[in-house]
Amino acid sequence: MSDPSIHRIVLGVTAGVAAYKAADLVRRLLERGFDVRVVMTPGAQAFVAPLTFQAVSGRPVHRDLLDEAAEAAMGHIELARWADLVLVAPATADFLARLAHGLAGDLLSTLCLATAAPIAVAPAMNQQMWRASATAANVAILRQRGVEVLGPGEGEQACGDVGPGRMLEPVEIAERVRAMAAPAVLAGRRVLITAGPTQEALDPVRYLSNHSSGKMGYAVATAAARAGASVVLVSGPTALATPPGVERVDVISAREMRDAALARAMWCDIFIAAAAVADYRPAEFSERKIKKREGDDSPRTLELVRNPDILAELAATNPRPFVVGFAAETHDVEANARDKLARKRLDMIAANRVGVPGTGFGVDTNELSVYWGDGGVALGSASKTDLAARLVRLVAERYDATRSA
Ligand code: C5P
Asked: What is the pTM of this model?
């Protein structure tokens, strides 16, 4: 099961002593950028209080199929549709049996029937129960239906037995989920990304800027982190939250962005410039607010000077990282993008057409085509999240190809 579009996880917690470890699992999943909602069976609540899960997930815990208030907020069908993956950890022998036989007597088992998303289970039980032929038969049914069975591990058990049946450690489960969501194509790589607009101050209250929201660059940072990279995101002013697992360096102007990026040029293996850097800045910064001239309506002239081209500068460092640029074009997308690829000595360029609905600034969707020396591919039109995941896979492929060449 390798689904590149797993972002939202319903974590089902059932009545095993390992339920206490599921609280840590929530944190491990959040760290890896997943959005997590917790569903607890009644038995699980005897082991760990729902409040614990509410605190670690920052969301109300779903517990009851017949709770009017909860159903009104997000009903079980809605939750089943929301999920990209239903992960049950710990999964008891009883739960595996119910899942194998299609029972739907509580919220979690109902949700498993009602979802079209893949299901993964992390069994946790006494070693004899795991070895029991009924359990083995249930697990075989589940596997045959495509349910991903994570573990169990072997070792000492809460009951004192030794053998198979321990729930895998939260970090291991989270890593397995990440591998399902996005293959770790950038494991061990260091990726530097610029994102967002820059603001070029005129005086203490005014600046020149552009409409960049930072969404594409943040999506690329999220995707790179999910693919196992260490990511530093040099960000101009945006309203976005820092992607989980990403180190963010905030800057305002192009010159600050350049300094922050160049300082990390030697650190990174891959540099991706998704920022909409202002090409020009006011030639002078006025320490005082520029006053309007009362009674003088004649035009005023603003003198501008060029900002540094961060991408071209990074591409000219020696040794240099693998360098990826973005191009927003209103026409002749491929010709203009290829020209930029050559002129700035880039390894790869991702181009999108601006000025058409559903692409470019502020929106959640985009349409990208990617070009490099002798190749190119249209990644199509999709959410920025999906496009970022596709782009990251392509970057990893080209990076590996250039290194082995
Ligand atoms: O030349 P143009 O602005 O179209 O190039 C776009 C690409 O160059 C983007 O990747 C953008 O992040 C980067 N860029 C930069 N510094 C600039 C201007 C653009 O890094 N001053």
From this structure: 0.70
